[in-house]
């Protein structure tokens, strides 16, 4: 039975004095007259407050008077002592007082510690007081449903007992606060003290009078103001915004509830001067509603104050409440609106891995990453991607996250904050990927930021696997300083400058290779085109990617070429490399190792295929079950006992390969080069009888300390600088021209990463292409510190936009022209970032050259084909003869082909001229670096590429004439799923960079020379990429209508050359003659793919130990015995049935050399825009000394005009 029902059981009592009716129950011993006693409760609070205030003031007054009196007495005594001359007697009378003060001070300090939350006890006490205050407020809410004043028995009323216990505790806490207070007066006037004065004494009065008065107990709501302090004590609130928000909310709510309590009191009681007759029954929550309507100035009028006290209070409350409402509420809403939308924590899902992606998070970087990471060709990607960035995503990026909401989550925060790392569960993440801003103006600052991110993550969780992008190669060394950085546990740094320049350098050796490799590690969907266009064949190759898979036990004991042929013919897979375990159980990646390596159990293979499911065939293949199957799609997992016992282990390891969080990663170039197996090759490329050892080369030629690169003593930059006239007299040919834009303020791009692949030790010295840099001398001086140990490097100070400079370096006779810029990221407008490279490219293409220079240069180097008399003007290159300028085999061998003699009865001649007319700049082989992908449309004015076309679908990229750093974004996801892919790419691209070499460069920032020991020379024995021509040589019979599969098998069986693509003329599929010399890339063609004579084949060629002595060309032509070419390149000797072994005598070569030197003076007239002040280089020729002639030509020219001579060649 409720209290209100108890009160209504008995009749009301009429009060004669005040005519007020109050509830009365005979069960409660209360005033028989029913007289109200509210004044007693109020008086107890007022007496306590004013009494204490009076005592404090009285004490201060007395203390002040006592101090004044004592001060006056002290002055009198001092004056008396001075006048009488009495000495000051030391009387230690203040010792008791001092001890008394010390005791009071200790008690005061103890009380202060107890209430200041400095200790655990203090924090518990503070939190307990706040919790009990809220509990007392809740009791008030419960009692507010009863009348304002009622008779209650303390021993029977449970709520009153609880309230009494709470207030006893408040009284004790008040005593502690009073003791700890320094200023007792201000303490007495504090809000919390006033709350205690008007809530604690009435409880004791209610026990004494056996009646309860609701009174001013609503003041407990003011304790809510301290809510933010309590949360700070508990370390719940840490940010300024959260503290401010809680403060505003607590002040607003406490004021609201307190004012509602006062209205509830006066409206339910009435005015005292009206004998409480004007009261109205309002519940507490109706008063709360009234106050909110009043503060918001709405004022519906359904509830309003009737008493004079209530209305008077409302007048003043509107002034303060309206101001508070108008200021607090908007600020609260703003703070709530500004709260981090993505400020939650990641909840891990059982059975599902997650990775954390941070760094440079933008729409472009995220879309490129997700497009490759979540590609459908990947086999069941059950990984959730968690992005962490300190800036909230914009609308476009937010929409991208919503489209992938099932696999992508975004959280706002920083990896430098351990709290944010805990939010994304970095300790349980499978890996952390850090993206770099490729377009930043300061690459070193961006790398420093990413290194700091690595340090923060590793400091929080040392065992987390990190894959980070780096912009500059030299900054990779800083990662080695992190103790927990361990590449063996999967940590990887993808250096964009190293790979970008490595790709471009490889294109100088085999044009189009950069496009092919970029497409291999990028996930591209197959786009089917029915029309017979070049895009059809290109896109069929684009659909191929690089995968790894363990080889079946059926391959154990077989040699690599046999397995490679079986995989290609039967499994429709292209195996290009394996992970080989040496006797010391050290793993190394061997690319096309030849027939000397036998397959082992659990060998990991690197395959080129269209999707991951196809690669499973290499794992499932069983000779007993699948030997007679012709359809590779039918090769499934069989139930052979042998397979079951031996291959389950490989399947488990294969699963680890897809998520190698803690797998031991021993990719080939991750180990010391000395750990690779030393295999003595007996290559069929070696000509029988030519078995001399390169003892002279070993003693004279220099390599770096690792044996991976050619090396020479450091040279001053002044010794390699060419003037325009010197470059013109040198008549450069077969070289690489690097047009670079940069100045003294430009960021370094790291040209060493470009030069190193071109100076790999698996080239012989005479095979090295001369490199000529054309650009600002101030910029090149800054780069020279990393280039001064590489041979055959020259600098022409100038600008790539000057045609005079370009003609001086014979750009029309170069093998490749590379256009780079160090100023690209200094421009805000994306469309203008590539303006210099585009202008240089168009400038070169629009240049015209006198074709006689090409004929004269060819004659001077012995390029004249058979049947063409040098002295006969009527014999021109158009009479059935085509001069191929840059077709190369593995050693970059220029081949001159006479088409008419090769035409056999019944053999169709090609209707396409695949010559490159050097009279126009459009024929110059060129590769241009771009920053903005959309700018590729400006490189070729005759293509039909749409501006919105993806980069890989454009003609310049397909032809290998354009390269953008954005294609390297795919390496992040490719490395995560299989870090062996990055190892293979580095091996192919960098020319042999190893962790040992990286550590050396970190220490000295330069290559260190080393002696040619057997260990270092053994490191030269590695494959390299080459291009093989089909219109001549031992494969000429397959070049006209033959099958690519037959070529693949023949090259593999006969020469251990592994073919993996075609570089085909763009219009080769047409049946009409075309003068277009553009080519495009076809990756991994099928077996029945038809070849044409003009095709160039990408292949992995073995290192030829005897190429240093052999000078035999890969050609059936009668001129193939010439020992050098336009490119000053060596020749890999392939035995052919009709090779003519003709060797020129030393006398005839000397005679030709003298003739060529006499023609040097005529070179100046070939350049129409050459400055008039150009002067010829004076060279004195002494015919009596043949060796001196050769030395003059070798040292006075940057690219040899004569066949390489052993004595001159061997000197760096």
TrEMBL record:
Gene3D superfamilies: 1.10.287.70, NAD(P)-binding Rossmann-like Domain
Keywords: Calcium, Cell membrane, Ion channel, Ion transport, Magnesium, Membrane, Metal-binding, Potassium, Potassium channel, Potassium transport, Transmembrane, Transmembrane helix, Transport, Voltage-gated channel
Biased composition (Basic and acidic residues): 1144-1153
Ranges of residues in domain RCK N-terminal: 352-494, 733-877
Region Disordered, residue ranges: 659-683, 1110-1169
Annotated PROSITE patterns: RCK_N
The reaction(s) this protein catalyses: K(+)(in) = K(+)(out)
InterPro entries associated with the record: Ion_trans_dom, K_chnl_BK_asu, K_chnl_Slo-like, NAD(P)-bd_dom_sf, RCK_N, Slowpoke-like_C
Biased composition (Low complexity): 1113-1133
One GO cellular component term noted in the UniProt record for this chain: postsynaptic membrane
Subcellular location per the Swiss-Prot or TrEMBL entry: Cell membrane
MF terms (GO), sorted A to Z: large conductance calcium-activated potassium channel activity; metal ion binding
TM stretches of this protein: 37-59, 124-142, 162-180, 245-266, 281-300, 312-330
Bilayer topology: Multi-pass membrane protein
PANTHER family, per database record: CALCIUM-ACTIVATED POTASSIUM CHANNEL ALPHA CHAIN (PTHR10027), CALCIUM-ACTIVATED POTASSIUM CHANNEL SUBUNIT ALPHA-1-RELATED (PTHR10027:SF33)
Family according to the record: Belongs to the potassium channel family. Calcium-activated (TC 1.A.1.3) subfamily. KCa1.1/KCNMA1 sub-subfamily.
Protein name as it appears in the record: Calcium-activated potassium channel subunit alpha-1
Organism: Gymnodraco acuticeps (Antarctic dragonfish)
């Amino acid at each position: 039975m409720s209290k209100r029902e108890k009160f209504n059981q008995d009749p009301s009592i009429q009060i004669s004095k005040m005519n007020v009716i109050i509830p009365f129950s005979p069960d409660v011993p209360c005033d028989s007259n029913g007289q109200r006693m509210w004044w007693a409760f109020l008086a107890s609070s007022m007496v306590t407050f004013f009494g204490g205030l009076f005592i404090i003031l009285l004490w201060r007054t007395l203390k002040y008077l006592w101090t004044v009196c004592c001060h006056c007495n002290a002055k009198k005594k001092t004056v008396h002592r001075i006048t009488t001359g009495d000495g000051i007697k030391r009387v230690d009378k203040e010792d008791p007082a001092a001890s008394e003060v010390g005791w009071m001070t200790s008690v005061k300090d103890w009380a202060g510690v107890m209430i200041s939350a400095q200790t655990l006890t203090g924090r518990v006490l503070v939190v307990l007081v706040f919790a009990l205050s809220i509990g007392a407020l809740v009791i008030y809410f419960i009692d507010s449903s009863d009348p304002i004043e009622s008779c209650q028995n303390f021993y029977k009323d449970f709520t009153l007992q609880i309230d009494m216990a709470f207030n006893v505790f408040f009284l004790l806490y008040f005593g502690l606060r009073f003791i700890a207070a320094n200023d007792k007066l201000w303490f007495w006037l504090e809000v919390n003290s006033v709350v205690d004065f008007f809530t604690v004494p009435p409880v004791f009065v209610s026990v004494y009078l056996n009646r309860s008065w609701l009174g001013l107990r609503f003041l407990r709501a003011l304790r809510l103001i301290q809510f933010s302090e309590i949360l700070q004590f508990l370390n719940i609130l840490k940010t300024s915004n959260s503290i401010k928000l809680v403060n505003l909310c607590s002040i607003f709510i406490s004021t609201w509830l307190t004012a509602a309590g006062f209205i509830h009191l006066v409206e339910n009681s009435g005015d005292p001067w009206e004998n409480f007759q004007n009261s109205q029954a309002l519940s507490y929550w109706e008063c709360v509603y009234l106050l909110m309507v009043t503060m918001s100035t709405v004022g519906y009028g359904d509830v309003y104050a009737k008493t004079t006290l209530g209305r008077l209070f409302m007048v003043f409350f509107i002034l303060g409440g309206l101001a508070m409402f108008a200021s607090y509420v908007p600020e609260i809403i703003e703070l709530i609106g500004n709260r981090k939308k993505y400020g939650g924590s990641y909840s891990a899902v059982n059975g599902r891995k997650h990775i954390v992606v941070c760094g440079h998070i933008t729409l472009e970087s995220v879309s490129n990453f997700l497009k490759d990471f979540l590609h459908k060709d990947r086999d069941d990607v059950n990984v959730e991607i968690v992005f962490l960035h300190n800036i909230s995503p914009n609308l476009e990026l937010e929409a991208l996250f919503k489209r992938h909401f099932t696999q992508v989550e975004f959280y706002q925060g920083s990896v430098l904050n351990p709290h944010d790392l805990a939010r994304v569960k970095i300790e349980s993440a499978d890996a952390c990927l850090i993206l770099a801003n490729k377009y930043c103006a300061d690459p070193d600052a961006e790398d420093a930021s990413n290194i700091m991110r690595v340090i923060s993550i590793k400091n929080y969780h040392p065992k987390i696997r990190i894959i980070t992008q780096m912009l500059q190669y030299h900054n990779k060394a800083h990662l080695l300083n992190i103790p927990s950085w361990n590449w063996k546990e999967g940590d990887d740094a993808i250096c964009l400058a190293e790979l970008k320049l490595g790709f471009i350098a490889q294109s100088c050796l085999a044009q189009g290779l950069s496009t092919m490799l970029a497409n291999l590690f990028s996930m591209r969907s197959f786009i089917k085109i029915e029309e017979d266009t070049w895009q059809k064949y290109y896109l069929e190759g684009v659909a191929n990617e690089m995968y790894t898979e363990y080889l079946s036990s059926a391959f154990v004991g077989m040699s690599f070429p046999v397995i490679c042929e079986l995989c290609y013919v039967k499994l429709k897979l292209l195996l290009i490399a394996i992970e080989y375990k040496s006797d010391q159980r050290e793993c190394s990646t061997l690319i096309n190792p030849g027939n000397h390596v036998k397959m082992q159990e659990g060998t990991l293979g690197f395959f080129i295929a269209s999707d991951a499911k196809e690669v499973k065939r290499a794992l499932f293949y069983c000779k007993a079950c699948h030997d007679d199957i012709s359809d590779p799609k039918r090769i499934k997992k069989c139930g052979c006992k042998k397979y079951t016992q031996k291959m389950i282990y490989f399947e488990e390891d294969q699963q680890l390969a897809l998520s190698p969080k803690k797998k031991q990663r021993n990719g080939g170039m991750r180990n010391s080069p000395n750990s690779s197996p030393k295999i003595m090759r007996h290559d069929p490329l070696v000509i029988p009888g030519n078995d001399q050892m390169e003892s002279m080369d070993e003693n004279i030629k220099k390599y770096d300390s690792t044996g991976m690169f050619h090396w020479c003593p450091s040279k001053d930059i002044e010794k390699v600088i060419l003037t325009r006239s010197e470059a013109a007299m040198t008549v450069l040919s077969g070289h690489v021209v690097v047009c670079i834009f940069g100045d003294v303020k430009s960021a370094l791009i790291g040209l060493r990463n470009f030069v190193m692949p071109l100076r790999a030790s698996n080239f012989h010295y005479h095979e090295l292409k001369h490199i000529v840099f054309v650009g600002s001398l101030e910029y090149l001086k800054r780069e020279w510190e990393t280039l001064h140990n590489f041979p055959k490097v020259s600098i022409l100070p100038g600008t790539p936009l000057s045609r005079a400079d370009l003609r001086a370096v014979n750009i029309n006779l170069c093998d490749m022209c590379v256009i780079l810029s160090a100023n690209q990221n200094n421009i805000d407008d994306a469309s203008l970032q590539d303006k210099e490279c585009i202008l240089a490219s168009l400038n070169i293409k629009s240049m015209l050259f006198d074709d006689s220079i090409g004929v004269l240069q060819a004659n001077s180097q012995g390029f004249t084909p058979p049947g063409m008399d040098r002295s006969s003007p009527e014999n021109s290159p158009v009479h059935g003869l085509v001069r191929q300028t840059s077709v190369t085999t593995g050693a970059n061998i220029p081949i001159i082909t006479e088409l008419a003699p090769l035409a056999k009865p019944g053999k169709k001649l090609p209707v396409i001229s695949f010559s490159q007319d050097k009279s126009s700049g459009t024929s110059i082989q060129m590769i241009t670096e771009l920053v903005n992908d959309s700018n590729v449309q400006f490189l070729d004015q005759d293509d039909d590429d749409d501006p919105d076309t993806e980069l890989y679908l454009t003609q310049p990229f397909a032809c290998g004439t354009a390269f953008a750093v954005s294609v390297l974004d795919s390496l992040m996801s490719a490395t995560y799923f299989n870090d062996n892919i990055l190892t293979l790419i580095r091996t192919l691209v960098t020319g042999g960079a190893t962790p040992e070499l990286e550590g050396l460069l970190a220490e000295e920032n330069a290559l260190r020379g080393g002696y040619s020991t057997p260990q270092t020379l053994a490191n030269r024995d590695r494959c390299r990429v080459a291009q093989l021509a089909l219109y001549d040589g031992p494969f000429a019979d397959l070049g006209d209508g033959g099958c690519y599969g037959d070529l693949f098998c023949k090259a593999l069986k006969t020469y251990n050359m592994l073919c993996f693509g075609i570089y085909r003329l763009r219009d080769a599929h047409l049946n009409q003659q075309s003068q277009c010399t553009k080519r495009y890339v076809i990756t991994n063609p099928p077996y029945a793919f038809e070849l044409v004579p003009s095709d160039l084949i990408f292949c992995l060629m073995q290192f030829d130990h005897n190429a240093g002595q052999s000078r035999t060309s890969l050609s059936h032509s009668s001129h193939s015995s010439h020992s050098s070419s336009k490119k000053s390149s060596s020749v890999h000797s392939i035995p052919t049935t009709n090779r003519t072994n003709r060797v020129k005598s030393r006398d005839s070569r000397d005679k030709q050399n003298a003739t060529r030197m006499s023609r040097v003076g005529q070179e100046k007239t070939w350049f129409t825009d050459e400055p008039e002040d150009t002067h010829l280089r004076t060279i004195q020729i002494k015919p009596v000394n043949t060796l001196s002639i050769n030395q003059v030509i070798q040292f006075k020219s940057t690219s040899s005009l004569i066949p390489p001579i052993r004595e001159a060649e061997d000197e760096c």
